[in-house]
Design a protein that fits this description.
Length: 435
């Protein structure tokens, strides 16, 4: 080992740099204690101010620059700025609303794609990736799950699943839903879900009862508003069963874009159902009660736990003249003291679990803190289509930070309490920086 001063160190590095350039190699150097070595000279183990540094060389690699050409108002293109000779790179192409990818070309290399991710391979010169977009004229609209009803759209009636089109960028789309009837059954609308492109299905609120003209509006995540109106009911006089008619209007002042798929279901009005319509800041809802006799399985009164919990868009059928208990659990970061409950078609209230609550032991075990009860009767118009909406606001915290070794505002706190305060402090800092 040899001890080298700073002057010798600089001289050594300069000499190695010149050698590397002459040999057509590139020297990799980093700060502080990073390690280097060379395969040719095996130059290693040189002590420098008490620290060992190693030097290494790597063959010089040719790199080519990547540039992109596209209309920024029609879409966005994201990719790397350099690539090694003979290498490949990916490009993400994202059209704006109302546009679709028309063509992706590269001035060098081969182009392939998986969806809107394009791969340019075997690059051997500087590359320009050119992307063009086309304006979409029409999108698809239709149903993938249509039960016990017909849909009339653009003056054509569809008794089963259908696919049609609508003009891109329009402000409004309308259609009607007409329930089926038979000599034994009368149906009413009990579920409408809408999905745009590859997004998730979103539950649409429905009129809360059978009164003519009843109307309700749901705002989707992109600002689109869906209004469902129940119109006058009718009967053909043959079966003496009522046919229910609904008008659905989809509106967006900025224009409607994207393929629209719907799931629409109607049910026999004699069945009593409890539907979970929306859960905001709330975990899945468990329940205690009796399975409807139409279903196979255990029809005794029992706790239907996490594996059978109700999520938005799901329901349970209920028997006549029975009590059903539904249990509520607030998700972390939401306020359990300010839960709001809406149960369309029923008069009930949210209460805290107590040891006297039916199903208390199991619900408490699974972390549920509140409950509400639905009592059914033999009245065919009562509890027949209960829709449940439960929301909890974001929680807010008063955070204190210990700068005095366990003493906050003159009051000493124990270790467990301090950990809780510290955790909340870090959470708030994280929240501020992320959001």
């Amino acid at each position: 080992m040899h001890s080298l001063n700073d002057g010798l160190k600089m001289g050594l590095i300069q000499a190695l740099k010149r050698y590397s350039e002459k040999a057509g190699l590139r020297l990799f150097c980093r700060e502080e204690n990073q390690m280097f070595h060379t395969e040719k000279d095996n130059l290693s183990g040189i002590e420098l101010n008490g620290k060992t540094i190693n030097l290494y060389y790597q063959k010089k690699v040719t790199r080519y620059t990547i540039s992109y050409s596209y209309d920024h108002e029609q879409g966005n293109v994201t990719g790397v700025e350099e690539v090694e000779a003979g290498g490949s790179f990916n490009v993400l192409v994202e059209p704006e609303k109302g546009y679709e990818i028309a063509n992706v070309k590269s001035s060098d290399g081969n182009v392939s794609n998986n969806g809107n991710v394009y791969t340019i391979s075997e690059v051997n010169q500087n590359v320009t990736v050119s992307v063009t977009f086309d304006k979409v004229k029409t999108y698809k609209i239709g149903t993938s799950n249509q039960s016990n009803l017909s849909v009339t759209y653009n003056s054509r009636t569809y008794p089963s699943n259908f696919t049609s089109t609508y003009t891109a960028g329009g402000k409004s789309i309308g259609f009607t839903i007409r329930t089926n009837q038979s000599n034994k059954q009368e149906f009413e609308l009990n579920s409408l879900q809408i999905k745009v492109d590859d997004g998730n299905y979103q539950n649409i609120r429905l009129p809360g009862d059978l009164s003519s003209g009843d109307s309700v509006t749901t705002e989707l995540s992109d600002g689109t508003r869906v209004t469902v109106v129940e119109n006058d009911t009718s009967s053909d006089g043959f079966y003496s069963k009522t046919i229910h008619n609904y008008t659905v209007t989809i509106r967006n002042s900025d224009g409607i874009y994207g393929d629209i798929d719907m799931r629409i279901n109607c049910k026999d009005v004699s069945y009593k159902e409890a539907w979970v319509q929306e859960l905001n800041g709330i975990d899945a809802v468990t329940w205690y009660g009796k399975l409807h006799q139409r279903h196979a399985g255990d029809h005794s009164f029992k706790y239907h736990g996490i594996s059978e919990a109700l999520t938005p868009g799901t329901f349970t059928e209920m028997e006549n003249n029975e009590d059903y208990y539904f249990y509520v659990k607030v998700l972390p970061g939401y306020d359990a003291e300010n839960i709001s409950l809406s149960v369309a078609g029923m008069d009930t209230e949210l209460k805290e679990l107590t040891s006297n609550t039916i199903g208390y032991t199991e619900a408490k075990r699974d972390g549920y803190t509140h409950y509400f009860k639905i009592t059914t009767t033999s009245n065919r118009n009562e509890a027949k289509n209960v829709r449940i909406i439960i929301s909890a606001p974001y929680a807010s915290y008063n955070v204190r930070y210990d700068f005095a070794g366990g003493n906050i505002d003159g009051e000493t706190i124990d270790a467990q309490g301090w950990q809780a305060y510290a955790y909340l402090f870090v959470f708030e800092l994280f929240h501020e920086h992320i959001y």
